[in-house]
Amino acid sequence: MKKSSLFRSIVVFLPALLALAATTCIPHLAQHVLAQAPTADLMSAWAARRAVQAKPAELQVSNAPIATRVLVQSPAETDAELQIICLFESESENTLHGSLVETNEKLKGLLDKIRKPELFRGELGETILIVPPPGSLGTRKLLIIGLGDSENFTPQRMKFVGSIVYRESNRLGIAHPFFAPTLLDGGVTKFATGQVAELFYAGFLRAARTEKMLKDAGASPGQAIQDLTFLAGSSHAADTQQGLERAIANPAN
């Protein structure tokens, strides 16, 4: 009889207990879900903001014969087929700064090792091509162009550099070369970045016109380059863009 009575009591009170559990647990569960929803939204918004911040700013160059942009990024951080930088003569007074120090560190001191008079002298127009070891730079190839002595440097040298950038990129079959003049990080700061960019681009476009003439004459396979990315610091990006556009407006330079 006692077992029967206990069974009947459980049957009678079980639905009530389940109902009570539902009324107490489900609201708390709902509150937990609702409390998590704003947190999830905030996390998504934060991640999106970080993604935007991580993307380098860029400026498009108007009316460029070859699609060109100015990208606010260090040459030590690029993910490119070919990154091109410049170095002054390998003399003790020509110390590295900024992005060149960063590049050298990522290459475990390789720039310091090759910057010797008996190795890479850095003479005007001298070039050396490096294939960065895995885990160092993001670029697949690094081309270094010598700028000559820093004391007597003039921006006119950048015309020669521009023609080298075009021809070497084309010779290597590079569709999307990245270029950073790295004058400031090489210690020469007295010239406007816009002037440097203008003269560089004049030489670059002159080489492109020459290549087109050769192709039309059946003496060249044609242009491999599809676009150019010119790197600049955030405070020099607009001036660089204007300099590149001046070179387009004055093709005779």
Write structural notes for this entry.
There is one protein chain. This protein has 253 residues and is α/β, with parallel strands linked by helices. The protein folds into two domains: 55 residues; 192 residues, Leucine Aminopeptidase, subunit E, domain 1. The chain has a seven-stranded mixed sheet, with helices on one face. Helix 5 crosses helix 6. The chain is globular. About 6% of the residues have low confidence.
Based on CA inertia axes, which overall geometry fits? Answer: globular
Query: What is the spatial order of strands in the main beta sheet?
Result: 1-2-7-6-3-5-4
Helical content (DSSP H or I, runs of 4+): 40-55%
CATH topology of the largest domain: Leucine Aminopeptidase, subunit E, domain 1
Put simply, the count of helices is 6
Number of separate domains = 2
What is the mean pLDDT? 86
Quickly give the structural class: alpha/beta
The CATH homologous superfamily of the largest domain: Leucine Aminopeptidase, subunit E, domain 1
**Radius of gyration, rounded?**
31 Å
- Measure the end-to-end span: 112 Å
Task: Provide a concise account of the structure shown.
The protein is of the alpha/beta class and 253 residues long. Helices cover 47% and strands 13% of the residues.
